[in-house]
Structure formats: structure tokens, C-alpha cells
């Protein structure tokens, strides 16, 4: 039964709230070890416990590839379906099918990204705190960290959207981030705003924010993907037209050469006349 008017709008709104909440809760459950250590990290930071904070950093770095990355890939599997028009997809089944199918690539990508984040964060901290005359390098590292963070959205989108090797996925995720600066800025701004709201209101973070961020990130990626595909199709069409024009030109040149050769050959009557004269 389909409702119309105001009742239909309320029904669709509650339906989307349920979808977002269910997907977000599945993500939170599968990412619970990472979230636990993250919360502990925030608590020990408030108490200025340096050793415990360092231990939490190590724990977060270890569990992130094992839990956070596969769970986020599963989340993107669901929002990919939504963005492509399949809004009635079974959430629980789709989530865990995506979790299982993309676990290996998510794990490898998670290790790669975690190592990069750790190295770049350490560089940023060192340059900003211990080398006062090289803080410009620290600022550059901060910008690179932000770009790396945005490339994560492209990484998860490509993991669930393409069938390719993990090396190509990481490479294309980074390249796509660099060649689309407007998308980078809009994704960074939108996700930053949503995360800010989520941290201000933790209930929204648990039930809605991550799903909305994932939906927004894949929407940006899919729009970029469609635009690039259109450009590639136009380039391919232009190339085919140029090849067809070149082939037609070559065919015309061949016809002209044949006609010129035929006009240069003596006619049979002329040959007979020449023989009679001899």
C-alpha cells in the first residue's frame, strides 16, 4: 500500500530514518573494537595520560584495518545500492555480503592507509613541535593528511563499485582525489560538518551520521564517475570520427591515384595508331 500526500511524505521519511539507523548500527557493531579504543583514547587525553594515550594509538592502529575498514566497505555496499536506485535492498543481507566479499581488499587497503596516516601524522607532529623553523613542512603534511582522508572515500567507493586489484584501487583513489579538487573540497566540507554535528550530538553519530557521510561520499564519487565516463565516451566518439574521416580521406586519395594512373595509360586505339605508324 502506497501512501500519498502528507502521509506518504511522513512514511518515506520514517522509512529512510529506519534505513539509515539500521545501517549505521550495523557499522557501529562491526567497528566496535575500533570505537572502544577511540573512546578510551579521548578519555585518557582528557586526563593528560601520555603513556596510556600512546598505547591507545597503537591499539587503534592495529584494530582499524581488521574492523573499521571492512565495516565501512560493507556500509558503502549498502549506500551504493541506494545511490543507484535500489532503495528497497535488504540492508542486513547486503551489508554482510559486502562485508564478506570485500574483507580482504579492505584489510590490505586498511593496512596501507593506516601506515600512511601514522607516518604522516608523526611527521606533522615532529615538524610542528620540534622544528619551529620548518612548520611550513608541517602544514604541507597536514594538507596531505586531509587529501589522504578524502581519498579514503574514493577508496571505499571503488572497492564496492569496481572489480580490480587493490593496487589499482588505491592508485585510482588517490589520483581521483587529486584531479577533482572541487569534489575534494565539497566532500571534505560536507563530511567535516556532519562529523562536527555527530560529535556534538553522539546519538546522531551512532544512529545516522556515518551512513549519511557514506551516502554523500559515494554520491560525489558516482557523480564524478559518470562525468568522467561521459568525457571518455565523447573522446572515444571523437577519435572514431577522426579515424573515419582519415579513412575516408585515404580512400579518396586512393581513388584519385587510380584515376590518375588510368588517365596516364595509353588507350588501345592510340596503341594501334602508333603501331601503324611504325
Low-confidence stretches: 271-278
Helix vs. strand class: mainly alpha
Report the major sheet.
none
What pattern of helices and strands is seen along the backbone? HHHHHHHHHH
Q: In what range is the share of β-strand residues?
A: under 5%
Share of helical residues: over 70%
C-alpha geometry: globular
Radius of gyration: 30 Å
Cα distance spanning the termini: 104 Å
Query: Helical element count?
Result: 10
**What is the subunit organization of this protein?**
single chain
Q: What's the mean pLDDT score?
A: 82
DSSP E strands, number: 0
Biased composition (Basic and acidic residues): 264-278
InterPro entries: DUF624 (IPR006938)
Keywords: Membrane, Transmembrane, Transmembrane helix
Protein name: DUF624 domain-containing protein
Write up what this structure looks like.
With 278 residues, this protein is an all-alpha fold. The chain has a domain at 1-99. It has ten helices and no strands. The protein has helices at residues 5-30, 32-46, 50-83, 91-101, 103-129, 135-161, 166-179, 181-200, 202-264, 268-277. α3 (50-83) packs across α6 and α8 runs antiparallel to α9.
Quickly describe the structure.
89% of the residues lie in helices and 0% in strands. With 278 residues, it is mostly helical.
